[in-house]
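@channel anyone free to eyeball this complex?
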Amino acid sequence: MAITKEQIQWIAHLSRLELKPDELALAATQLTSILDYINQLQQINTDNIEPLAHALDVSNVFREDDLKESLAVDEALANAPNRQGNFYGVPAILE
Amino acid sequence: MSTTTSNLTEKTACELIQIQANNEASAETITRAFLDLIKAREPKVKSFLKINEETALATAKSIDLKRAKGEKLGLLAGVPIAVKDNICIKGTATTCGSKILENFIPPYDAHVTEKLQQADAVIIGKTNLDEFAMGSSTENSAYQTTRNPWNLDCIPGGSSGGSAAAVAACEAPISLGSDTGGSIRQPASLCGIVGLKPTYGRVSRYGLVAYASSLDQIGTFSHDVADTALLLKVIAGKDERDSTCTSNDVPDYTKSLDVPVKPFTIGVAKEYFAGGLDPEVEKSVREALDVLKSKGATIKEISLPHSAYAIATYYLVATAEASSNLARYDGVHYGHRSKDHKNLIDMYCKSRGEGFGSEVKRRILLGNYSLSSGYIDAYYLKALKVRRLIRDDFDKAFAGCDVVAGPTSPTCAFKVGEKSSDPLAMYLSDIYTISCNLAGIPGISIPCGFNSKNLPIGLQLLGAPFSEEKLLRIARMYEKETNWHLKRAKVC
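replying in thread with the prediction:
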């Protein structure tokens, strides 16, 4: 099943990823061949098999809800591309 | 200079510790020897993205001072170590081999970084990798392609290719990497050194930049198994900042290492010797099995019937997790922000479009495709069901054998550029390593020979969850019978 450029465009939009026209065309070809390969999974009967999201048995881990020191504001904001006071600056969301 | 201290850079970590204990060389002398060799070899090998010359020398001097004062020293005192550049060191750039993190300076240390510091190790630099650990050759790094020290025209493997090449080129005696689908074992095999991926949950992932969280695990590179045991002892153990990191006791891997396992059974999966395996690799691996047989191993043919589906399963599970993990690179909190944007959504799209390389984009697209409405049952959930079948195969195998043995990689190191335009061909180079991550079990690659072009070959041993102690002892039994781990690359 071939993946179309339109499908890639839609997934790229959902992924918040801008692709150049040549990247878009290449992604369509490459994803088509990768999915062709992946489709071999459909040969396996997985009726009544529970999905396995984690290899080892892990259950929720709780800890006491104690107050602890966390990252200082200046350290947390040190890598911000646009710092405004104690906030991250972003383009206007509401016009 | 005495014979024990000549060629300091060819020594193992255990030897360097002994040399310091005997007062034959100081931590500073050792560190300088490695820094000098790095300067000479880096133009050819390109293992490192950053060399911490100043801080490494300062640490080494402080360790010498501690020793002079008779203070208690850590397990890795004065031993230089290289760290893969997806593991955070506070105040040192951590790029993940990506343009999107070009200027990122972590405000905290990874758990393993703290452990190395507590052990008085000398962190000598950060090593190259495929961008976000996605790749098998380091060709996906946004900065440079690392070369194989045994043949500079070849790739070192990946994604931890820089950490593997650094040890193989004697630029560091030991290093840390991460393994999501083979990213430690495959480069260890291709570079002729030892590489261990511990059981999922054995080592904290706190401070390891996430790629696929249910598969990622930090592990080790070294010249021999004794160093692997020592380094694992330092980094393993509970950390409450990673809730998947278990509180299971950490055995003293170094103490039992030289006690042979007797009797023991090696499972040989017929699927690991099927089509696509290079005949020279097969020959060396079969000879390695004979060596283990001579040490008392019973060889038992087993089947891992779903291993043929491991790559397909992996590329759904890993990319689905990656598409979610990499959503954090949005140009807001840290990392690259596009200068040219019309609004918030456009800023996200352009920042990510400019910052990520092609393999990362491909995996985000594949992951989001397999998770999207209408496809999730056929792809992502199907893969999780097959993942259970793959794990069940191993459970059955380990009921009847102590380790599963086979080749680590179907071929020796390939040429730079040979597979870089065909993602699927590149994915297939992880065919023997990938199911280990899906099952969460430990795996080690140890050197077991060279092909006719003098390129290294690796033997992979896989064990049941948390069986590292036994895995290392069996690997050690093999190592003691052979000289492959004593060979050093000439780098020319």
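from a first look: The domain at 8-305+392-486 of chain B is CATH 3.90.1300.10 (Amidase signature (AS) enzymes).
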